[in-house]
Amino acid sequence: MKTKKSYRWFVVVIFFFFMLLHQTDKLLIGPLKSQISADFDITNTQFGMIITGALVVGTILYPIWGYLYDRYARAKLLALASFIWGATTWLSAIARTFPMFVATRASTGVDDSSYPGIYTLIADYFGPNMRGKVYGMLQLAQPIGYLIGMVLALMVAPGLGWRNVFYITGGLGLLLAILIFFFVKEMPRGKAEPEFADVEEMTQFRFSWAEAKEVFKKRTMWFVFLQGFAGVFPWNVITYFFFDYLEKERGYDGDAILFTMAPVILVLAAGYFVGGAAGDAAFKRTRKGRILVSSAGVLLGALFLFLAIQTPIDARNTFLVLMLLTAIFMPLSSPNVISTVYDVTVPEVRSTAQAVEYFIENGGAAFAPLLAGIIADATNLQTAILSICITAWLLCFLFYLGALFFIDHDIQTLRDQMQKRAAKDRLQQA
Question: Which of 118, 156, 219, 424 could form a disulfide with 152 if both were Cys (CB 3.0 to 4.6 A apart)?
Fold first, then answer.
């Protein structure tokens, strides 16, 4: 199956807009915290329950989505996920009581666990040496989506109402479901692996429980799982509480928040691509390259966040500079972790492997908003953000150091497997 190179970039664009608008819808609730809390008259802890509900649902469904992506057509499943996104967002806009809003918002977590299908399908369009950059480009959508959500919360929701904003974002999910269903093509699993570059007709790899079990035998994946468990805590805490922290504890009004967070989020977005490109470049020099870039990212991100939070409230320029430095390093590891998973696992179980990694990530991090809410109510938002983020990132740094000992062996094992499969296909076609 030959595909024009221009078409694969068309697929990247479609998935970019899926992730951009999906992240806008998902993360919009953070900037809308004050309005939603006032509407339902709830505390920080109760607001944390809203976020945790969706994260728990998404966590539970990760292995199911991963299995389905490895068994069936990923493009059609992604269209279904987009439809579910739109429908559940509309349900949460309709809810008029707090228990109903918690339930409907939890239902939005069903599609939140659909991303492994995007990343594995892209892995079959682009080879290992380009994946980091492409994933970094796709992940630009996450912070930009948050920025769009912040603009909607500050400039649109006050006049239009937060419920109507959800109707808009949900409608966009339904539109993207149609685009993905009709215009995104499936690709054979493993098509972009370098060993199959000269193979005209390759064997169609099918999901195998035996290969799925092998994922857990790879020691690199042990440390990937461990860093994943700790690594999402900071993201969930910052995403859902930092807006409120600026407003209530640093005294920022809406304009000050926008002019502070907009450049921070733009730099954060750039950090995904920088991380992916740096990881690809380092990977070409050494197979440890992606892990080294990830290690530097979490360590420096923790350092600059600590310095920023400790900055005096009236030193706004210093605070902004330190947050910009935090933002460039925070996302360096994200595209590299995804690429590392695919560097050591066979194509037919990659969705499952990544889904398990996400399951472990969110198994702990689903409770990060609730934990942050409890700490914030007992102390303050600064203590909640700082204690959770710094602890989690230092643990990630230690886990990345562990992965360095095993990554070379696990990558070579995969390359040997791909070489044997390609040789078998060539022999059959001779």
Answer: 156
User: What distance in Å separates the CA atoms of residue 193 and residue 187, rounded to the nearest whole number?
Assistant: 12
Q: Burial of 62 by CB count in 10 Å (0-12 exposed, 13-18 middle, 19+ buried)?
A: buried
Alpha carbon distance 114, 366 (integer Å): 16
- How far is Cα of residue 303 from the mean position of the Cα atoms in its chain? 22
Q: Are 277 and 133 in contact (CB under 8 A)?
A: yes
Average pLDDT over residues 117-129: 92
The pLDDT value recorded for residue 77 is 95
Residue 310 token pair: 């400790």
pLDDT value at position 250? 92
* Residue range 5-188+208-429 in CATH 1.20.1250.20: yes
CA-CA distances (angstroms) from residue 141 to 48, 134, 147, 266, 415? 24, 12, 10, 10, 31
Q: How far apart are CA 7 and CA 21, in angstroms?
A: 21
Distance from C-alpha of 184 to C-alpha of 427, rounded to nearest angstrom? 32
Residue 252, phi then psi, degrees to nearest 5? -85, 135
SS3 content of the chain, % helix, strand, coil (to 5): 80, 0, 20
All residues at 6 or more sequence positions from 193 whose CB lies less than 8 Å from its CB, including other chains: 127, 128, 347, 418, 422
- Write out pLDDT tens, residues 25-81: 887 887 788 888 888 888 888 888 888 888 888 888 988 999 999 999 999 999 999
Which residue do the tokens 């892209």 mark?
A: 122
Q: What are the Cα distances from residue 33, in Å, to 14, 36, 359?
A: 30, 5, 26
What CA–CA distance (Å, rounded) separates 217 from 393?
25
Tell me the two tokens of residue 140: 């630009």
Dump pLDDT digits (tens) for 331-378: 999 999 999 999 999 999 999 998 888 888 877 666 777 788 888 889
Nearest to 227 by CA among 115, 361, 328: 361
Interatomic CA distance for residues 406 and 218, integer angstroms: 8
Cβ–Cβ < 8 Å for 14, 179: yes
pLDDT confidence of residue 366:
67
Residue 419 has pLDDT above 50, yes or no: yes
Q: What is the pLDDT of residues 274-303, one digit of tens each?
A: 999 999 999 999 999 999 999 999 999 999
Structure confidence by residue, pLDDT tens digits, 161-192: 888 989 999 999 999 999 999 999 999 888 88
Residue 268 and residue 328: Cα distance in Å, rounded? 5
Q: Cα separation of 114 and 78, whole Å? A: 7
Both tokens assigned to 190:
């493993």
